[in-house]
Amino acid sequence: MKSTFISSNKEGLIVLLHGSSSSSKVFKKLQLTNSVLAPTLSGHEINENTDENDDFSFKFYKSELIQLINSYSRPVFLIGNSIGGHLAIEIANDIKSLKGLMIFGTPPVKKPVNFEEAFLPVAALQTFLTEHPTQKEIEEAAAITVYDDKYSTMVVADFNNSNPKVRTTTAEDISSGNWLDQHKIFTELKCPKFIVSGVQDPSVNPSYLKEVVEQSKGDAQLIFIENCGHYPTLEKPEEMSEIINQIAIDIFKPLK
Fold this sequence. Notes:
This protein is of the alpha/beta class. The chain is built from 10 helices and 7 strands. It has a 7-stranded mixed β-sheet, with helices on both faces. Strand 4, helix 2 (83-91) and strand 5 form a beta-alpha-beta unit. Helix 1 (58-70) crosses helix 2 (83-91). It is globular and about 50 Å long. The N and C termini lie far apart (37 Å).
């Protein structure tokens, strides 16, 4: 698994996990004060990365991410967008020094996956689970995911720069019941937890997110961002940088 590491003079490590048929480029405009680790999931950014691996399963991704993140032996703030958020939830208890978890574009689903409760019904978004959609379908789906259409160009580019098998493997993982009970993991996780949601995200049910936070044990917060769709770090990088940096200050404080 390829990754980008940006060092700082602070001990805390912020880990950024991108979604399916996306890339770490959605985090590019963030201005973060801690060290940053941005893995590239296998099957993504294929034009830039030579990756002979053909296993795009959730199980493989989780194993690779746990090994990579724990190899840094630092306190971790784990952040995930969309499928990256689902991965973040499922590996959270295996990260040795997890100090905080943030997800966006990610409803913590139950087992079996409670699609109708957690997601909003948008047919075009099935494109992200389709192996070979048409270019028109890709562009229409991308335009729906963002509030401002100018950001859809990157969404389309990332989609076209991913292995088509990534999408069918994700669909198979979901239909085969390979995802864990993410709702249970998230609500019972002991570290501070944050759900960020673009008000105009077409895929995630905001009422469900509110219920998840209300049912969570310990510190859990729900943060809504106006004029924002499925990719807050792409669409609102300054606002997200401020949110992430402030949380990092709080969760990385040394114990007295």
